[in-house]
Specification:
Strand content: 25-35%
Protein name: Acetyltransferase (GNAT) family protein
GO molecular function: acyltransferase activity, transferring groups other than amino-acyl groups
Number of helices: 4
CATH topology: Aminopeptidase
Shape: globular
Largest sheet: 5 strands, mixed
Keywords: Transferase
CATH architecture: 3-Layer(aba) Sandwich
Number of strands: 5
Radius of gyration: 15 Å
CATH class: Alpha Beta
Order of helices and strands: EHHEEEHEH
Organism: Clostridium tertium
Strand order of the largest sheet: 1-2-3-4-5
CATH superfamily: Gcn5-related N-acetyltransferase (GNAT)
Pfam families: Acetyltransf_1 (PF00583)
Number of domains: 1
Length: 149
Amino acid sequence: MNLEYKIMDQTDFKRCAYELIEAFKEAPWNENWTFEQAYTRIDEIMSARVSRGYVIYDGDVVVSMLCGRIMTYLDFKELWIDEFSVNPRYQRKGIGSKMFDFVRSELKKEKDKITYLALNTEKGFPSVKFYESQGFRVEESNVLMATKV
């Protein structure tokens, strides 16, 4: 592997969309994203001045991508991670950990101190153990709620 780490920009969106499709079509997610849906999702997340995105390439293949928004909450800032994925062919090879090392390194360069990383994931999925290995903890006092419009 010849890994290249970079800050995501619009030229990466197409390849990141294909990577998102590949990553989430596998179990346990079993999601069927179209290219248009995946591209739109990334474009929407990355459209704000507070948006941040990170990509790892192996040659011209996106092996991992992470994008989200830097949000202020009271007296601190956090990177709220909206999407994170690792190409299934590269999973269990340390790529996810390398991505979080890269993100933390880049966030230390921000003008304002970023105190936390935050995200939502599915209970019982393998992603929970991975995130815990990266220092995340389940916030038992929080409840994610949703309703139809």
